[in-house]
Design goal:
heterodimer, A: mainly alpha, 2 helices, 85% helix, 0% strand, B: mainly alpha, 7 helices, 2% strand
Chain lengths: 54, 270
């Protein structure tokens, strides 16, 4: 149950960082938000997959 | 100036009441005893050393003449040991190979608990885990151990492959692999250390604030502030009790998570 917290923190941070890097490289402004939200979605999917289904 | 206790306390907390009150700062936590600067011998170092000696003496003294019907000291030690051995190690790691890790988990639990409790015991009143170095040292130990255990069981490549849950749809692998790697190598140890550090640091700062604020208000205030000072000390009393609970809880959570990470490395399948 506490493992879930690690996933929920890592997902948005990592993909937010990737999004920020892409923003910096391509000059856009919205990739950070896409990264954070997408990262959170991915984390939630991973939590569901690992702990929610048998 | 209202007689509202919380209002007066928050006003004093901002340092805006009177020009003499200095709210406690993180710099208060640095208390060098011998030497100065980065390599000083500070009070938490001495307190940690004393706590180790204290725990060692207590555990040896209570189990020296172990009787089948335990006396008081032995009963306390047995309960603490059973709590970690059964409640944490056996339940989390599983009855097959939990015994190897009980010494580690028990030692860490006792160390963190005693050092946390020092935060509310009057002559000492310094939770050593509120200096970031100590939780980092413990976390480093746990980090090395749960990776070493996984590598010893599955081999280096097997340990890495173990991190990724089987049966994922193929397309997502590219995204999930860096996520899992980051979680196992960065986020888990980071959160483990910061959770313990943050709780102890924040709790101690709260106590410092209410006690020094209450003292200042009682001594330097008018009648309204004196009443607020009494209220502040009342809050400090409540928070000390709450802090005792939090200290025990944080020691338990640290040990629980260490056991969980080790169990995760040892797991056969998901």
């Amino acid at each position: 149950m506490w493992n879930v917290v690690s996933y929920l923190i890592t997902g948005p941070s990592m993909f937010g960082a990737v999004g920020w890097g892409l923003d910096h490289w391509l000059g856009t402004t919205w990739l950070v938000a896409v990264g954070i939200v997408g990262g959170m979605a991915l984390s939630l999917y991973l939590v569901w997959f690992r702990y929610g289904t048998q | 100036m209202s007689l509202n206790v919380l209002g007066a306390i928050s006003l004093a907390a901002e340092g805006g009441e009177g020009e003499g009150f200095h709210a406690p700062t993180p710099a208060e936590f640095y208390q060098p005893l011998i030497g100065h600067g980065d390599f000083a011998i500070t009070r938490p170092m001495v307190v940690l050393a004393i706590s180790v000696a204290l725990i060692a003496w207590f555990l040896v003294a209570t189990t020296k003449r172990a009787a089948v019907v335990p006396g008081k000291g032995q009963w306390v030690t047995e309960n603490a040991y059973n709590f970690v051995r059964n409640g944490v190690a056996r339940d989390i790691i599983g009855s097959h190979d939990f015994l190897k890790f009980v010494p580690l988990l028990f030692s860490m639990f006792m160390l963190i608990l005693v050092n946390n409790l020092f935060g509310i015991i009057p002559p000492i009143q310094y939770p050593t885990m509120s200096r970031i170095g100590f939780p980092i040292a413990l976390t480093l130990l746990v980090f090395v151990i749960y990776h070493a255990v996984g590598i010893k069981k599955n081999g280096a490549w097997g340990h890495i492959k173990h991190m990724i849950p089987p049966g994922l749809p193929k397309g997502i692998y590219v995204l999930i692999i860096p996520l899992e790697l980051l979680t196992y190598f960065v986020t888990r140890p980071l959160t483990l250390a910061l959770r313990l550090f943050g709780n102890m640091f924040a709790g101690h700062m709260l106590l410092l604030l209410f006690i020094t604020g209450g003292e200042y208000m009682l001594i330097h205030g008018g009648l309204g502030l004196k009443v607020a000072g009494v209220g502040s000390f009342g809050m400090a009393f409540v928070l000390t009790a709450f802090e005792g609970l939090i200290e025990f809880l944080q020691a338990y959570i640290f040990t629980l998570l260490a056991a969980t990470y080790i169990a995760g490395s040892l797991a056969d399948e998901h």
